[in-house]
Amino acid sequence: MTLSGVDLSRAVSQALRHAPWLYELELDEEGWAPVDQLLASLREKGGAWGSVDRDALERMLATATKRRHELDGDRIRALYGHSVPGRIRRRVATPPARLFHGTAPETWAVIQAEGLAPMRRQFVHLSVDRETALMVGRRKSASPVLLLIDAAGAAAAGACFYEGNELVWLTDSVPAGFIKLVE
After folding, report:
1. What residue intervals traverse the membrane (predicted)?
2. N or C: more exposed end of the chain, with fewer CB within 10 A?
3. Does domain 5-78 have CATH number 1.10.10.970?
4. Is residue 1 very low, low, confident or very high in pLDDT (cuts 50, 70, 90)?
5. C-alpha 117: how far from its chain's center?
């Protein structure tokens, strides 16, 4: 049995985004974990997992359809999507002037009144283009609504933005006044 890149990506995401304690990993304040510890923990699962090595990890990163993880020397981290307790520290960056968010139609009334909040995640996830936002929104609804975020205005008003990857930006929250429904 061969381990797929998708299976490896899911396990690495679980370990670095949601449940590092299940893999006996300690994330530092920026979300980094030692590659050797991650690989040792994955190999302990047995079966096809027993052959997971750094080459397999690098292949998974190189062939992934989305850039979810980052490798730097002997450490690795998830770029976004954390639900672990404690806050992952990010560097503030200047966002594009506008960003997008896809969501279920029934949540628009709440967002319109209260703005965007991270819910069960550490940050609100925003997309650089309509297509990505709608793809994310389809996880919540077959017919998602598309929201336009005035990121430049929100940043000027004091909202902090952080780069997740080339398609995803993160923020602590977006006040309702900087969000419009795209018709």
Report:
1. none
2. C
3. yes
4. low
5. 15
